[in-house]
Amino acid sequence: MKNIFNPLHMEEILERIDELSPESRGQWGKMDVAQMLAHCSAFQDIAMGDSFPKRGWLGIVIGRFAKPIFYNDKPVAQNMSTIPTILITEEKEFETEREKLKQKIIAFQKNGPEKCTTHPHAFFGKFTPEQWGKGIYKHLDHHLKQFGV
User: Fold this and answer.
1) Exposure winner among 24, 27, 82, 120, fewest CB in 10 A?
2) Which residues contact 21 (CB under 8 A, 6 or more apart)?
3) Of the candidates 95, 89, 92, which has an alpha carbon nearest to the alpha carbon of residue 21?
4) How many domains does one find in the chain?
5) pLDDT in tens, 90-100
6) Other Cβ atoms closer than 10 A to 79
């Protein structure tokens, strides 16, 4: 499984982000490309410990049993639900969101596993830094495939 803490895997993700354009269209879902970039950026904030969405009752009850889907080798299902606070519906500016996301990915990778949040994910619960690294790669990969890159 690829891991965003691996510099080669991070570079691959950054190159794919650079392949996006304002005209990129999603193959599923409701977000446009700028909203997707903002969504991924908001997700980075959670992993970096800059945002702390509250855990819902469903996550508390079943999240720990489902959490391997976040960091295993299986692709993320299309149209999978997301944390409500990072569901982006307002209009966003493409270039701004692309640069913001790239800078957050670079900072996350540079800070390394020791700077990962210890705060639980809103649905899945606590992750190890290794699980965060794999999950961040998998989440970004999912959304980049959504937009054809």
Assistant:
1) 27
2) 33, 94
3) 95
4) 1
5) 999 999 999 99
6) 10
Question: What average pLDDT is seen over the chain?
Answer: 95
| 26-40 pLDDT tens trace | 999 999 999 999 999
Q: Has residue 108 been placed in a domain? A: yes
Calpha distance 51→53 (Å, rounded): 6
Place of tokens 């720990």: 64
Range of the domain at 103: 7-19+26-146
Check: CB of residue 149 under 8 Å from CB of residue 20.
yes
Q: How far apart are CA 67 and CA 25, in angstroms?
A: 29
Q: Which helix (H) or strand (E) holds 71?
A: helix 68-71
Question: How far is the C-alpha of 36 from the C-alpha of 97, rounded, in Å?
Answer: 9
Q: Identify whether 78 is part of a domain.
A: yes
Predicted TM-score of the model (pTM): 0.94
Q: Identity (one letter) of the amino acid at 83?
A: I
pLDDT, tens only, 108-125: 999 999 999 999 999 999
Contact by Cβ (8 Å): 143, 30: no
